[in-house]
Amino acid sequence: MDLKKIKELSNKYYMNVFHRQNICFVRGNGNKLYDTTGKEYTDFVSGIGVNCLGYNNPDLTKAISDQAAKLIHSSNLYYNEEQAALCEKLIKGTIFTKMFLANSGAEANECAIKLVRKHYNLRGQHRPVIITANGSFHGRTLATLTATGQESHYKIYEPLPSGFRHVPYGDLNALKNALTDDVGAIMLEVIQSRSAIRPADYDYLVGAYALCRSKDALFILDEIQTGMGRTGKMFAFEHHGLQPDIVTVAKGLGGGLPISAVLARGDVANAFAIGDHGSTLSGNQLACAAASVVVDKLKNGLLEEIAQKGEYFSGKLAYFNKYKFVSGIKGLGLLQSVELGSALNGNYVAAQLLNAGVLVNCTKQNVIRLLPPYTIEKSEIDEFCEKLDDIFRNTNL
Ligand SMILES: Cc1ncc(COP(=O)(O)O)c(C=O)c1O
C-alpha cells in the first residue's frame, strides 16, 4: 500500500485521536527505520521509548519467533514458565518482593492505585487519597488520567473517580501540607518526561520519601518512562538511593511488545488476594519471552553502555547552549531534550530533521525530546548533532 492509501484507510476507520506525522514506516534495522518510499531515518524516538534494542535485534527477534512457534498465550488460568522466569529476573537483586504484569503503563499505574487502596482496606484504615504532582502524566484510564496533574487531560471526562490530590511538582512544603491522614500514597515521577523533561531534584525526592515514612504513607514511583535502563540504571530512583514501596515500569520492558510491570515490597506487596486483580492478556508467554531478552541484556552490560552513551550524548548536546534560542538541555542517560525559547518553533526543527533523515519527537511546540534506542551508536549521535547544528546555524537567529 502506498502512503496515500494507508492515510485514507486510517482516517476513514481509525478514531480521530492521534496527531500523526505524514509518514509510515514499513521496516526497521539497527537504529534505522525505513518509510514507504524506502527513505532511511536514524531513530531518536524509538516508538516513544519502547524499541530499546532498536529494530531487528537478532536475539529479540529469535526469542519472539521461537516463542511464537512454541506458545503465544495460555492465560493466567495456568502457570506460565516464561512469566515465572521473567519475574525472577526482574525481582532478584532488587528491593522488591512481588510483582504483577500488565500490558501498558496506564494499566500498571491503575494496578498500583488499586494495590494501595487494598492495602489500607486490609488494615481497616480510610486512606483513599493519592497525591500526585502538577504536570505529571500517569496514563489515560479514568483513574490514571485523574491522577495525571494536567487539567486538559481529565476535564472532558468528568465525573472522575475521587481520591486524587494534585500539588506543585518540586514543592516539598505543598506536599507536606497535602499529606493529611486520609492520604495513602504519594505518586511521583523521578523525571517528568511526557512532554518537557523535568528532573526532580534530589532534595525533593528524598524529602517526599521521608514525608511518606513519617506519616506511614506509601511512596510510589511511576517509572513507566524512566525505568528499564533509560537513565543508565535499571530504575531512575537508584540515582537517588530511594526505596519506593511500589514502582511501575513499561515502555522498553518488552522491547516493542506490550508489557508493563508493578513491583512492590513490604506488606503492600502481599495486599492482593485471589480475584482482587487480573488481566486476560497480561504476562503472556510471547511478551515475557521478549522482556526476558531485554532484562538479560540490561543486566549483562547494557546498563553501563547506556550510562556511558548518555554522558556522551549530554556532553555533545551541551554545545547547543551557545545558541540564544536554546533555553535548556535537560535529561539523564538516553532520555534527553533540547528546549527552545519562543524565537524558534520546535515543530519546524523536527520537520527539518525529518527531511535530513532523523526522527525526533517535538512536544509542547518547543521541546525536542530525544529517546534513542539503547543501541544507538556514538557516530549516530555525532551525526544527529551535526544535522541539528546545520539547522540551528541556518535559522540565522
Ligand atoms: C510517566 C508515564 N506514566 C504512564 C504512562 C502511560 O503509559 P501507556 O501509554 O503505556 O499507558 C506514560 C506514557 O507515556 C508515562 O510517560
What distinguishing features does this structure have?
Aspartate Aminotransferase, domain 2, binds pyridoxal-5'-phosphate, seven-stranded mixed beta sheet, alpha/beta, 397 residues
The succession of helices and strands, N to C, reads HEEEHHHEHEHHEHEEEHEEEHEEHEEEH
Strands of the widest sheet, in order across it, are 4-12-11-10-7-5-6
Low-confidence stretches: none
**Major β-sheet profile:** 7 strands, mixed
Strand content: 15-25%
- List the ions, cofactors and other small molecules found in this model: pyridoxal-5'-phosphate
CATH class of the domain at 81-272: Alpha Beta
Briefly summarize what is shown.
The protein is an alpha/beta fold and 397 residues long. Helix content is 38%, strand content 18%. It has a domain of 192 residues: 3-Layer(aba) Sandwich (Aspartate Aminotransferase, domain 2), CATH 3.40.640.10.
In words, what does this structure look like?
It is built from twelve helices and 17 strands. It has a seven-stranded mixed β-sheet, sandwiched between helices. A four-stranded mixed β-sheet has the order 1-2-3-15. Strands 13-14-17-16 form a four-stranded antiparallel β-sheet, with helices on one face. The protein has 397 residues and is of the alpha/beta class. The protein has a domain at 81-272: 3-Layer(aba) Sandwich (Aspartate Aminotransferase, domain 2). Bound molecules: pyridoxal-5'-phosphate. Pyridoxal-5'-phosphate is lined by residues 104-106, 109, 137-139, 189, 194, 222, 224-225, 250. Pyridoxal-5'-phosphate binds at residues 104-106, 109, 137-139, 189, 194, 222, 224-225, 250.
